[in-house]
Each structure stands twice: as C-alpha cells, then as structure tokens.
Design goal:
Length: 292
C-alpha cells in the first residue's frame, strides 16, 4: 500500500490543529513516530519546531515519538558538500518513522540539503521516499509544500511572469536578496508526480506563475495545483485521488489543451480551471471530479 501526501498552503490558523490531526491519523495514529523537518525555516527555527511539537502533544502524541531531524537551513549562497541529507545519523533518526512534516520558510534550504548539486537524491531523501512508498505520510506547509513536486517553483510573482521569461536552477540565487522576483523553476523533492504545486494561493497573486511553471518546465507536465492558505490537499499515491481539508480550496489548472501566443510570454487560451473544497474529490487520471 502506497502512502499519502498532505500538502498545506501555508498561513495555518483556524485549521492548523485539524490538519496536523489528519497528518497523525494518516501516519497510523499517536503511537507512531513522526518527524519534524525544519530545514526551510533557517538556521535556528526554535519557534517553528515548538509550535509543531505543541500541537502534536496536544493531540496526544508522546514526546519520545516526536523526532527532530537536525537539518537546519544554512544561511548564505551556495551548497554545502556533502549535503546535510547525506549524514548517517539522519538515517538512524528516520528508523521507524511513519510520517514527516516539512516546515515553511525558504525552499532553497531544503533543496540544497536534500538534493546533491548534480541533482541526485541524498541518502535522507531516498529514505523518505521509501517511507512514503511503504505507506507513510509526507506533509508540509508553505515552502514545505512547494518542495513536494518534481518541478518546484522557487520564487516569482505574476508581474514578472507576465513580463519576463523564467530562470532555471539555483546557481545565481542569493537568499539574502528579497528582490529576486523572477519565476524561478528548480528541481523539487519529487514526492508528488501529478503536476506542479503552488501555495499561499488566493492570498497572493500566483496564477500566472503557476501556468508558466507548468508550460515552461521542460517536463511532460500539464497540471498545476494551487493550495489556499489554512488548507491542505490530501493525495493518495495508490488511487491518485485528491481531497481537501481546511477552510479554503485547491485550484486545479489544466494546461493540456493550452494554446500560447508566439509573440508574448503570457498570452494563453484553452486553460481549464477547477476549484475543489473540503468534501470534494478530484482525479485527473480517470477524469473524475466529484463535488460535494
């Protein structure tokens, strides 16, 4: 039996405990071992870690079953070689873990910690894939959601998606520069294979950048999934079904029949758009959309 993904759009507030409760349920319940991966949150994400721990303890988990993966985001441009995800102690910590939670922050740190510079998986990422494939749950919010897909949106906004071509990879990325608003397309961790994930949807203008990431990814992809804040998409690896939990929606962008103008960056037609909320279900592989 394959696993589940719980992909949250960031800005968790009213539905935060509900989403974490679902994560623990999908991972087999409070008696199981779950791991917090705080990499995206920077060098010392004390508050982020404490927030997740407190929620899990309130739900009923035991302190000894909460595993902290000490892979903290490294400030500064460039990669550490070997990457942090190749450290042997990380593999030991993941023994017996049935679920993990990637925190928010900057997905750049997670990328460089779990993916080698040549694009290969680190040992830790390979182990996480095994957990998922054997029935475990992989969850994350904000940056922890962005890293889920094989094609990852690293940065960008609608304005630059409208006026500028995308850039690829992290080679020229400077995490200290807040003005890097190009739509940047890089390699994600690849748990979700049905399309491109985007987050903070409907609170931030991101529909154009999602379409650009799909159409300019140089991959055989045509689907995008934008997840609202305070909301999560649940994906079943076996059935390919997608459901929603929380107060917002998942915005499904189908570019399978898109036509693009040869003269501009973002003149399109024939983009199909679905919106699903809690209680709805979607599966594009069998062309199935059930609305509550």
């Amino acid at each position: 039996m394959g696993g589940k993904l719980l992909i949250a759009g960031g800005g968790l507030e009213e539905n935060e405990k509900k989403i974490h409760k679902k994560l623990i349920e999908l991972a087999g319940g409070i008696e199981n071992r779950l791991a917090i991966i705080p990499t995206a949150s920077g060098e010392a994400p004390v508050n982020t870690i404490k927030n997740v721990e407190d929620i899990w303890l309130e739900i009923g988990m035991k302190k000894e079953n909460i595993v902290l993966l000490p892979i903290f985001g490294e400030e500064g441009k460039g990669w550490r070689e070997p990457p942090l995800g190749d450290e042997e102690n990380i593999l030991k910590l993941l023994e017996g873990v049935t679920g993990v939670w990637f925190t928010g922050g900057d997905q750049y740190y997670t990328h460089k910690a779990f993916i080698r510079k040549d694009g290969a998986h680190t040992k830790a990422l390979s182990r996480l894939k095994e957990i998922y494939e054997k029935g475990g749950v992989i969850g994350g919010t904000s940056a922890g959601a962005a890293i889920m897909s094989e094609v990852m949106i690293a940065s960008g906004n609608n304005m630059n998606a409208l006026n500028l071509p995308p850039v690829y990879g992290y080679e020229d990325y400077d995490d200290s520069d807040e003005n890097q608003d190009y739509v940047r397309i890089v390699k994600g961790l690849g748990f979700f294979t049905e399309g491109v994930i985007d987050q903070h949807f409907d609170r931030r203008p991101r529909i154009l950048r999602l379409i650009k990431a799909i159409t300019d990814s140089h991959k055989d992809l045509y689907m995008g999934y934008g997840v609202s804040e305070d909301t999560a998409m649940i994906y079943d690896r076996d059935t390919k079904d997608m459901e929603v939990i929380g107060g917002g929606a998942v915005y499904i962008v189908d570019c399978s029949k898109i036509e693009k103008s040869p003269n501009t960056f973002t003149t399109f037609k024939n983009v199909t758009f679905h919106v699903i909320k809690e209680g709805d279900m979607y599966n594009h592989q069998v062309d199935k959309l059930i609305l509550k």
